[in-house]
């Protein structure tokens, strides 16, 4: 699937830690999310746009092969903000994510700007990179699929609703953003449209009390593999159930 150009913008502070004794609570793995937005260069010649686009795609592949870029995907329609063009997830702190994104020819040409936010999630995102690396080694073409990318506020109510949906196998990842956006939960859903996702979210426990901002988004098909519901705990009543 051909993916459009992406964008990025400013850094944020570390995540706030919930709970009365933060030091006693293990934190989820830390990543950086880069939101890609339309930049100021809107009058480039067609040849310049093509050069930026080609360089952008090559840079995504290079960063992925280096292991620092885990996920890259463009926004589709509808989206909550017309400036949004895509999203990167880096296995790196915000300052390194900004440095990596600044090597993008499309960013250098002003086609995109970049905004980076620290983020934590329990989802095994490095597994997606491993699967994509194996695909490249086999010489296979990239295959993407539709998702819905969203944020929910307030964060604790959003966690409750998303946690309930996780048991249904439709949540590839979710986690609290940091810095000035620490009251937001960032998540992806295996859904074709924002309307489909909203119906699921508002039917979940507490979901009708959350402000959901939902956009169409496209990313690797391997991301959907992370949405599988957790296996029953050993010794639980469900452990002996052999139904598919």
Characteristics:
alpha+beta; Alpha-Beta Plaits; four-stranded antiparallel β-sheet; 6 helices; 28% helix; globular
Characterise this structure.
With 244 residues, the protein is an alpha+beta fold. The protein has six helices and eight strands, in the order βαββααβαβαββαβ.
List the SSEs and their pairings.
Elements: E1 30-38, H1 46-66, E2 69-74, E3 84-90, H2 94-101, H3 105-108, E4 112-120, H4 125-138, E5 144-153, H5 155-166, E6 173-176, E7 185-189, H6 194-203, E8 211-220
Antiparallel strand pairs: 1-3, 1-4, 2-3, 5-7, 5-8, 6-7
CATH class: Alpha Beta
Radius of gyration of CA atoms, rounded to a whole number:
18 Å
Helix-strand category: alpha+beta
Count the DSSP helices. Answer: 6
Largest beta-sheet characterization: 4 strands, antiparallel
* Residue runs with pLDDT of under 50 for 5 or more positions: 1-22, 236-244
Order of helices and strands: EHEEHHEHEHEEHE
Percent of residues in helices comes to 25-40%
Q: Strand order within the widest sheet?
A: 2-3-1-4
Please indicate the count of domains.
1
């Amino acid at each position: 699937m051909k993916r459009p150009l992406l964008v990025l913008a400013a850094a944020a502070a570390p995540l706030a830690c919930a709970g009365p004794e933060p030091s006693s609570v293990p934190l989820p793995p830390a990543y950086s999310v880069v939101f890609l937005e339309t930049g100021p260069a809107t009058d480039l010649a067609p040849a310049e746009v093509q050069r930026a686009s080609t360089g952008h795609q090559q840079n995504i592949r290079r960063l992925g092969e280096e292991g620092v870029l885990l996920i890259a995907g463009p926004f589709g329609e509808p989206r909550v903000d017309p400036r949004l063009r895509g999203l990167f997830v880096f296995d790196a702190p915000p300052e390194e994510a900004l440095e990596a994104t600044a090597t993008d020819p499309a960013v250098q040409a002003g086609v995109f700007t970049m905004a980076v936010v620290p983020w934590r999630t329990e989802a095994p995102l490095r597994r997606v990179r491993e699967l994509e690396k194996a695909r490249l080694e086999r010489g296979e073409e990239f295959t993407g699929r539709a998702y819905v990318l969203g944020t929910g506020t307030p964060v604790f109510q959003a966690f409750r609703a998303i946690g309930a949906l996780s048991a249904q196998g439709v949540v590839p990842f979710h986690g609290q953003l940091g810095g000035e956006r620490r009251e937001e939960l960032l998540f992806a859903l295996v859904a074709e449209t924002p309307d489909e996702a909203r119906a699921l979210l508002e039917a979940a426990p507490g979901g009708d009390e959350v402000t959901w901002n939902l956009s169409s988004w496209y990313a690797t098909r391997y991301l959907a593999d992370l949405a599988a519901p957790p296996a029953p705990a050993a010794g639980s009543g469900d452990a002996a159930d052999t139904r598919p």
